[in-house]
Amino acid sequence: MARNLLILYILILFSALTASESDQYFSKKISPSSLGLKKEKLTHLHFYFHDTITAKNPTAVQVAEAAMTNTSSSNFGAVFVMDDPLTVSPEVSSKMVGRAQGIYASASQSEIAFLMVLNFAFMEGKFNGSNLSILGRNAIFSGIREMPIVGGSGVFRFSHGYAQAKTHTIDIKTKNAIVEYNVYVFHY
Ligand SMILES: *[C@@H]1O[C@H](CO)[C@@H](O)[C@H](O)[C@H]1NC(C)=O
Ligand SMILES: *[C@@H]1O[C@H](CO)[C@@H](O)[C@H](O)[C@H]1NC(C)=O
Ligand SMILES: *[C@@H]1O[C@H](CO)[C@@H](O)[C@H](O)[C@H]1NC(C)=O
């Protein structure tokens, strides 16, 4: 009787050990279908970005500068934080599809070229609640600027692609700008 109990005890201990060992792994191969991934899709998004610096309620604010920023022709060292609305047409009052939230910093000493680090937070249709992350160079006075998509969340998990920015209007005095975006993104 005591021997049977001992064997039972050893069996239980052994199965507990093997179970916890199989739970402990650092990496293993899994199939894409285990994450519900089907065929990769390509989506084209088109919207207008409104960067308003000079207004009663600005959507982009300067948060830092260097001692020499004001004397630099390219505003080198200026850092802005934005929470800019994205709309379907150039009018800011048109339907909002998302917001561009992030930072841009003047990172060239020879022309106005920003380091852009931002998330597009979408609020429209099946993209509502999903985000895309952008990291790129934006020389605002050149025609079409291209910035890589470094990833995304929600329906944009595993995304890759690029965003093209083209200035629609810019007011040199107020620095307020409307920028047309064409985004090409692969996702599942
Ligand atoms: C740069 O110019 C702005 C606006 O004229 C001023 O508010 C700011 O203090 C200046 N910054 C430096 C570091 O001189
Ligand atoms: C987006 O999702 C939020 C939260 O789930 C919801 O409140 C909002 O109405 C949705 N907007 C659109 C345009 O579907
Ligand atoms: C996308 O960003 C918003 C904030 O803008 C956040 O509430 C939401 O959880 C993010 N979506 C996902 C899928 O992580």
TrEMBL record:
A GO cellular-component term linked to this record: apoplast
UniProt keyword list: Apoplast, Secreted, Signal
Pfam name, any one: Dirigent
Family annotation (InterPro entries): Allene_oxi_cyc_Dirigent, Dirigent
Signal peptide: 1-22
The protein's role, per its UniProt record: Dirigent proteins impart stereoselectivity on the phenoxy radical-coupling reaction, yielding optically active lignans from two molecules of coniferyl alcohol in the biosynthesis of lignans, flavonolignans, and alkaloids and thus plays a central role in plant secondary metabolism.
Name of the protein in its database record: Dirigent protein
Organism: Dipteronia dyeriana
Lineage, uppermost ranks: Eukaryota, Viridiplantae, Streptophyta, Embryophyta, Tracheophyta
